[in-house]
User: Fold these one by one.
Assistant:
Number 1:
Amino acid sequence: MTQQIYISLGSNIDARYHLTQALDALAAEFGELTLSSVFESEAVGFRGDNFLNMVVGAKTDRSIEQVVACFKSIEAANGRIKQAQKFSPRTLDLDLLTYGDTVCQHPIELPRDEITKNAFVLWPLAEIAALELHPILNQDYQTLWNEYDKAQKLWKIEFQWPKDPTN
């Protein structure tokens, strides 16, 4: 059965390059993608370069395990250290935020807790899935974003994908 999935992408090491590589790989694996804006934010939990983050929507017939394995492969191809600390610099971080309206703890937690904890996840998700409901809270993402404490500094940046072949 085809599921709508939402994926969080983040990088703070050669971030534009790694986001582009991730989008190319995700498009090759899942076909048509729905893209949020790209947001820049300060590193959370450690000192480091600013992060670029976005959320991507796609459809898949793959299982949760297959989707996660695909993400790990894309991360590894982009130099992601397998046992990276939670609050540390990274070339690429891909997280499955939702898989349809699935609620589970295994093989991963769905929906991801980060949806309501981090502006750099919720704002871009609200941008591309405004009226979709959070599977546990039963509120749409736009409402969740409107009610969110916007203390974290976050701003949209210019980012073009796919790259314009004339440039």
Number 2:
Amino acid sequence: MINKKVTNAAEALTGVKDKMTLMVGGFGLSGIPENSIAELVKLNVKELTCISNNAGVDDFGLGLLLQKKQIKKMISSYVGENAEFERQMLSGELEVELIPQGTLAERCRAAQSGIPAFYTPAGYGTEVAIGKETREFNKKMYVLEHAFKADFAVVKAWKGDEAGNLIFKGTARNFNPNMCGAAKITIAEVEELLPVGSLDPNQIHIPGIFIQRIFQGVNYEKRIEQRTIRKR
């Protein structure tokens, strides 16, 4: 069995360079690869294109890369929790491509599956469809969307084994599974890394064939974007 374990985030991110395109898993601040993002900040790579559902918050998640002006372009669906993102976008410092959330997920999954493009009704008749091919199927109009092309995909899982098999937990099972195998190299950081054979095959969400490097993360904060509780 191939062993894909690496020591830490620094070793996992070997090869990441300026101007690359990175997929980054997570939904809000749930299931984001905290260790890998922190290492990207240390590497100080610049002019990145980041494909992620959202841009984190000002002082956490991808917001840390935005603070240091490491991201040139964001390809996202929801970006409403980050004031620095808003400032850079409005000032023209940051290129932004907003995509319907389902389309974003499907463009990742298409890349994972080797499908070059697909038709979707989402966005037809709006700015999303400008410059794109459209076609009618069964008396309904669709927009042609292309699969993403990324150099690295960085995801976070609950458990994994040294062969790269992954199990996600709760809301972390969002964009992370679709991004596995959707780039030239997929890196998985996990809360618990186990020997091969330790995971129940019936519980595995992503098989190891989609993963090139895996490591056990440390010191997860698991922040909540907006904590809302009932008044006592």
Number 3:
Amino acid sequence: MPNFELRVEDLSHPGTRIFFANVNPEEALREAVVSVCSWLFTLQDVPLNVQNVRLVLRNMPGVAYTTGSYTHKEIHFALSHIENSATRARDEIRGVLTHEMVHCFQYNAKGTCPGGLIEGIADWVRLNAGLGPPHWKEGRGRKWDAGYESTAYFLSWIEAQSGRGTIRNLNLGLEDRQYSDAVFQDLTGSSIQDLWRLYRLDLETRGVV
């Protein structure tokens, strides 16, 4: 478990009060790490490089982003988003922290992985942690790497078809090689194009799209 730090840049912001009224920061960050490690790694292959995670609550546009070095990560979280999510603040805060914590630990094929897959894996972990927000809907997105929940639901379908651990192995396969769509063929026996086509057919059969 990495060391956790917290920086609050605006104590008077309503989002700050909502944050502390709904979560214990240390517990929420620890829970996020456990979710990430449970879904993307095993005890034998959890990466040990992340030594410190700093959560920064600040007034900024958007929702959140993750930055930092190989050993020290920073999650910047928009206070305005917390304020706008007041009616379901606890789950939204935990969900966003889980998504961003994935970015602290996941592999990215030495920087060559499509951004949509990076974000899709992060939302896939959030989805499996039971923290998907009410507005998420399966079947959105016109391509497999549209990102976020669109790709997350597709990855869940792949996992259901190919077995528990498939997406974990996908992440592990992005550790030390350049990205290629062939990684899906290696894992599932089918090309990414065939997987996407079959997924869309399944959505139509189920009346989702």
